[in-house]
Amino acid sequence: MISIRNFGKTYGDFVAVENLDLDIAAGEMFGFIGPNGAGKSTTIRFLATLLRATHGEATVNGHSVTREPLKVRQSVGYMPDTFGVYDGMKVWEFLDFFAVAYQIPKAQRKGVIGDVLELLDLTHKRDDYVNGLSRGMKQRLCLAKTLVHDPPVLILDEPASGLDPRARLEVKALLKELRRMGKTILISSHILTELADCCTSIGIIERGQLLLHGPIDKVYRQIQRHHHIEVRFSGDQEAGVSLIRSDPHVRSVQVNSRNCVVEMGGEDADVQRLMRQLATSDVGLLSFADKEPTLEDVFMMVTKGLVT
Ligand SMILES: Nc1ncnc2c1ncn2[C@@H]1O[C@H](COP(=O)(O)OP(=O)(O)OP(=O)(O)O)[C@@H](O)[C@H]1O
C-alpha cells in the first residue's frame, strides 16, 4: 500500500533522511519510531506530497508521490504534527472546508460530516468554535478531518503528542477502530510505549537512517537473544552491581535508585549462572527477573547497534 524507494532529503549539507526503503502492506498499522529530529516528519511529508525529495520515489495506493500527487492526496488522510486553524471557525465549518477541498458533492457533505463527528465522538461539539476546544478535542477534530474523503491510507504525524494519558488512550482506541475499518495506517511517535500494543509493524529511524523495520513480532524475536533483567538488592547494591559487571555476557548495567537493569547476551544457562552467583554471594539479592523486552528496550538496543 505504501512503498518507498531510496528516499533521501538534504538541506544544504545536512542529510535529514538517507536512502530510505520501506514497504507497508494494506491493512497494517505501522509505527514509525524515532527521537526528535530523526527524520520522521520529513519522510511523512514526502509521502503526503508536501515535500520534494532530493532523490528517491514512493507510491501510495499504487500512485506515484512525485508524478501523481493529486491521486495520492485522494488516497491519504494526513494529520500534521502541528495544528492550524482560522479564527472564528466552527467545528462543522472546519470539516466542511476540507470536504469542499476534497470535492465532496454538496448534497453529501452534511451526511459525511455527521458521520465523522459521530465516529470521533464530537457530535456535541458540532457548533463550537475550534479555537475554544481543548487540545485533546482539537487532535480528535484533526483526525476527523483526515477521514472526510474516506481515504484508504492514514498518515498521522504524532497524533497523540501533548495529550494526557486518558486522551492518549482514546486516540489509541480510535486508531484500532480505524484499522478494523480496513485503513492502512502509518503513525509516528517518539513515545514508544504508545505504539507497542496497537502496531502490526514498526520502523526505527535515527539521524535519518532507518535502522530496523518489520512485523512487530519479528522485531521482538530478533532481540529475544538479548536478556533484560531487573535485579533488586536489599543489601549492598554496589557490590552486587560490580559482581554483575564482571560477568562476560553482561553488556550494560543501568543503576537506578531502587533496582538495576542488566542487558546481557548468552544462553539461558548463562543467565541462570549469574542468578545463582548473586543468590549465593553476600550481596542481599531480593529479586531477579528476566523481563519481556518493551518497545523502549528494542529502540535502545537498535540505536546502540546491538540488533541489526
Ligand atoms: N526546512 C528545513 N531546513 C533545514 N533543516 C530541516 C528542515 N526541516 C527539517 N530539518 C531538519 O531535518 C531533521 C529531521 O527533521 P524531522 O522534522 O523530519 O524530524 P522528526 O523525526 O519528525 O522530529 P520530531 O519528532 O521533532 O518532529 C532535523 O534535524 C531538522 O532540524
From TrEMBL:
Keyword Nucleotide-binding: yes
One Pfam family per UniProt: DrrA1-3_C
Domain ABC transporter: 2-232
PROSITE patterns (UniProt xref): ABC_TRANSPORTER_2
Gene Ontology molecular-function annotations: ATP binding; ATP hydrolysis activity
InterPro entries: AAA+_ATPase, ABC_transporter-like_ATP-bd, DrrA1/2-like_C, P-loop_NTPase
SUPFAM superfamilies listed in its UniProt record: P-loop containing nucleoside triphosphate hydrolases
Keyword terms: ATP-binding, Nucleotide-binding, Transport
Gene3D superfamilies (UniProt xref): P-loop containing nucleotide triphosphate hydrolases (3.40.50.300)
UniProt record similarity statement: Belongs to the ABC transporter superfamily.
Protein name: ABC transporter ATP-binding protein
Organism: Aeoliella straminimaris
